[in-house]
Structures are given as C-alpha cells and as structure tokens.
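Tutorial handout. Part one gives the primary structure; part two gives the three-dimensional structure as tokens.
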Amino acid sequence: QVQLVESGGGLVQSGGSLRLSCAASGSFRSINAMGWYRQAPGRQREWVAGISRGGSTNYPDSVKGRFTISRDNAKNTVYLQINSLKPEDTAVYYCCANVVLAVQGRDYWGQGTQVTVSS
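Part two.
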C-alpha cells in the first residue's frame, strides 16, 4: 500500500511564504513524476507544479515565479515552496505521485493540506 502524506499547510498573511511537503511511504520500486495540485472552494482542481524524477520542473503561467517544486528522491518526498502568497492561493493543496510498484506506474494522491491566506 502506498501512502502520500502532505504537511506544511496553515494560515498565513498575504505576502508570506509556506513550504509544503509530501512524503511517500509503503512498498514500491520507484517514483516517477510528482506534482502538486490545488482546489479552492467551488472550483475545479488545478495543477500548479510538476517535477520529473530527474528534477525537471514545470509550472502553469499563473504561478511561475512564486511557486517552486523540488524533490528528495532519497526521502521519497516532494516539496512546494510558495512565496508572495495571495488570498487567491487559498485552497486545499494535494500532491500526486506516479509510483512504480512492479512494472508500470500508477498515480497516487495525498489527502490534502489546507492553505489559507488572509488579506
């Protein structure tokens, strides 16, 4: 069984920063790409950052320059640094990882961590 557990969310003032973490645990061979998504109340879940196993990163234009994704393969952990937080960043943030149990990878999701930005 694979589990992804996010942490690091909380209440922060506008302009502040947060660092989210997501650790994968369980029995698996490796982890391919990892990513972060968010879902604000009444809105669809949106992708905000992705990183390959080798460390190549991608972001939508809406968060470029403020969001930084990184990973530690030895710890099976992915991070999301969010700077210059805005009230519109308020959402539940989810991590996703493509985990290889035997041959093919399969996507797993964490339970989410709440980020609330006050104005």
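Part three, for discussion. The longest strand covers residues 30-39. DSSP finds no helices and eleven strands in the chain.
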